[in-house]
Amino acid sequence: MGTPVILDCDPGHDDAIAILLAAADPAVDLLAITTVAGNQTLDKTTLNARRVCTVAGITGVPIAAGCAGPLSGPLRVAADVHGESGLDGPAFGPPTVEVVGEHAVELIHRVLATHPEPVTLVPTGPLTNIATLLGRYPGDAARIREIVLMGGSTGRGNVRPYAEFNILTDPEAAAAVLGGGVPVTFCGLNVTHQALVTPEVVARFTGLSELGRVCAELMTFFGATYRRIWGFPAPPLHDPVAVARVIDPDLVWCVEAYVEIELRGEHTRGATVVDLHSYLGRPANARVATTLDVPGFWDRVIAAVSRLSSR
Ligand code: BDR
Ligand code: CA
Known about the structure:
This protein has twelve helices and nine strands. The protein is α/β, with parallel strands linked by helices. The radius of gyration is 18 Å and the shape is globular. Bound molecules: beta-D-ribofuranose and calcium ion.
């Protein structure tokens, strides 16, 4: 069996591929998929998780809906990036995979309590569910092996000059998770911008299967967004990088560093302040991803979609 993982996500084009990778890579034992408001409202991100599982034939993994907005303040969604549905591009039929009738935080708590080994949490959206879990059940920290998240950046942001979307959407939750007594790894923009979905990658998806063609359509929509908003020649596939780190640490190299979440800065709220050069002289409190094995990453993603295609 692979590493036991709960994927906490806000699908989202890149979350969708993260679901496929986590569900199909043999190095991961996917125990649950939980959803949170972020890229779109909770009803839409949850519907999208069901759509992805339906189209990919992922039927044995419980899906639970979680928090509908950040710990404080209003929800900001990313309709400009992911569309009104949160997963614009392909036409999805009605989903047949259902959600369980349990809040995501309760599902995570129950899985942590009953699984024989400590579980790795992979959050790829705002950290509201995970912060709520650690606030409500502080003892659960001991049942979590590590938290490997997509969020933050060692450099600039993507929604504010210094803030990345997942962290800015709920900075208080991010700070609570970082201080929650569990080892945290940040896979931020500095590494996820190395995972560019080039036309060659899109062609590899297209050549696989009907599911591969859905992935290609998702990436084509995402690519148009990234060209329009940021001038990227190809879109970065953020969220699967966090899953890849769990699959094989050699795919995503990390350094240890002291990290703070900026909560007050007038222009920098939501920034991850990553002290890569120990200017502050404080002990490291996190791992921070710096380098992606790009060919290895894409081979793993394509292999996962291929495996799901032949099920
Ligand atoms: C993150 O924000 C979302 O739009 C993506 O799904 C990813 O998790 C990138 O900043
Ligand atoms: Ca996401």
